[in-house]
Specification:
six-stranded antiparallel sheet; 262 residues; five-stranded antiparallel sheet; single chain; alpha+beta
Length: 262
């Protein structure tokens, strides 16, 4: 069931992109757009900045989509103030004659965006054991957006065989993985939230997964299995929180989806 707000966006944003017709050869496709939006003290989006390289043909469509999303504004000591925050739009493009029809499928945002990341070097013993891994790293950012490794920590480590949780991992495996995760943080940096014109140091709970489903499946089937498992175990884990207790970050004000009747 589509979100009520998204349904209205679909009607309002029945736009076409002729520039994409040749590139996709008449196929339906989806794409995620990462943007940074300016939000005023009333919760209105007043500007859009593209974080990733985005073809010009998409700019107007994505900007108009973002502008229609209401926000709960950022607060400083309980007072609404302007802010800048990251937003992600997942959109679907369907052939419509010689053009494409665009639909907004999902809106997520109100958080700190990872500008650069460095994958951890997973210990060889874990890889040889054929285990999938879920780890949650609590990352404290510095004012310049880089990870403060000394103030960061590993909150959670879990090992799986396929999608089944495995108990009794060795202390050495946990220790080696913890060290690898913290070492990787040295290459992480983030585009921070801004509240009332000031960058906000943030604490993030970042899920990190290693999926080795390729050992029992191949190609697209393996990718689907890994994607499904990763979505399941990481659901709801990435929650940024400002270090300053007097600040509340801006959040998209999307009503809860309707619950289907039994």
């Amino acid at each position: 069931m589509k979100h009520p707000l998204l349904a209205s966006l679909l009607l309002a944003l029945a736009l076409v992109l002729t520039a994409q017709a040749q590139a996709t050869a008449g196929k339906t496709f989806e794409h995620r757009f990462n943007v940074r939006v300016s939000v005023d003290a009333e919760g209105r989006v007043t500007g859009t900045e593209f974080i990733d390289d985005t073809p010009v043909a998409f700019h107007a469509l994505v900007s108009e989509s973002a502008a229609r999303i209401p926000f709960e504004p950022a607060l400083r000591d309980g007072v609404p103030v302007p802010s800048r925050t990251s937003l992600q739009l997942r959109m679907k493009f369907t052939p419509d004659g010689d053009d494409y029809r665009a639909e907004v499928l999902e809106v997520t945002g109100g958080g700190t965006y990872a500008a650069t990341t460095q994958a951890p070097k997973f210990p060889a013993a874990i890889v040889r054991a054929g285990r999938n891994v879920l780890a949650v790293v609590v990352v404290r950012t510095r004012p310049d957006g880089k990870a403060d490794v000394a103030a960061s920590s590993v909150e959670r480590i879990e090992f799986y065989r396929g999608d089944r949780l495995v108990e009794g991992a060795s202390t050495r495996q946990q220790r080696d993985l913890r060290e690898a995760l913290l070492e990787a943080l040295q290459g992480w940096s983030f585009i921070l939230e801004e509240v009332d014109g000031v960058a906000v140091s943030t604490e993030l709970r970042v899920p990190v997964t290693l999926c080795l489903e390729g050992a029992t499946a191949t190609g697209a089937q393996a990718r689907r299995s890994c994607d499904e498992w990763s979505r399941k175990v990481t659901a709801g884990l990435a929650r940024p929180a400002p270090v300053d207790a007097g600040i509340r970050l801006a959040q998209p004000n999307l009503p809860a989806p309707a619950v289907p009747a039994a």
